[in-house]
Amino acid sequence: MHRLARQQTLEKILSASQKELDLDPTKPLFKLTYSTSPNWPYGKNKNLNNNNKTRITRIAILDSSFNPPTKAHIQLLIQSVNTITNMYSPQAQGSHEKNNLSSSFFDACLLLYATKNVDKILSSSDIGPIDRLLMMENLVEYINVDKDNDNNNNEALQNIAVGIVTHGRFINKTQALHSFFSSLKNSNNISPSNNISFYFIVGFDTIVRLFDFRYYSNLRSELSLFFESSNLICANREGFGGKEAEDAFFDSDIVKEIIGKRDAIEGGGEGEKLIRIKLDNEIAKISSTNVRKIVSEEWNKNNKNNVSYEERMERIKKSIDDMCPKPVIEYIIENELYK
């Protein structure tokens, strides 16, 4: 019953978003579809009406197609938030204050799904936005349930939202997000800080596309505008050239020119626009593409062999148990996705 209600709510949000987009297709839109806090991104302990207009609200954004969400998504979010929090901790800044991971550098996290991707073509096995959004909600709940885990007790990891954006380019995503936060200031008597800083968490393959001239009329000016309020956290991806290819890219003239020579490095102080993190090799190997492939093969294999429904479900569970969290696996099976 709960899932049916959520599905109907999401259908209304997507329908309203499409109607708004039809009125002006050039205007990027962001819609919040789910959050763990009614005051997201400020959280239940934040004073929304404070007079500190210089305070920066920082949001870690995991931007992906979530088709489906995997354990790599979870690890990427958790490791990014904790790594950056440690990087900008009192010790890292030369202070002797005790570091507390639960006191986060970030205020909140966002799982962001673009309903239109700049260069990915939908295949017949791809699922629609509602299934993805519901699985993203499962991912959030999974992280929140596991909050007793020392890695997950960061405040920002307990203040997570799910949202959609109508455009695929990062410059358009930030435009949509800024518009959303401007609307927050004008509603519910909320007077949050004026400064919003976005930290997009992406894989190396996405970074390469971000700096591709094909997607811009003027790459330098558009990306310079993007980096005024946005930052990138880049993780290694299996099968994309390895560390040598990554180092060569980050050392390229165009990257240095736009984000600064010192910024595309591992570690450092606040102010960097591009921060690199390294995932465990086994985690880096996990991809949504492989999950879809394995599940599809299991469906087809079991159909041909006249395997019982129960045994078929069990085989699919085992085949992706190391790749996806349990709630996502259950959703895939119950809804017979990726057949």
Automatic annotation (TrEMBL):
It comes from the Eukaryota. GO terms for cellular component: cytoplasm; nucleus. GO terms for molecular function: ATP hydrolysis activity; nicotinamide-nucleotide adenylyltransferase activity. InterPro entries: Rossmann-like_a/b/a_fold. PANTHER family: NICOTINAMIDE MONONUCLEOTIDE ADENYLYLTRANSFERASE. This is Cytidyltransferase-like domain-containing protein. It comes from Diversispora epigaea.
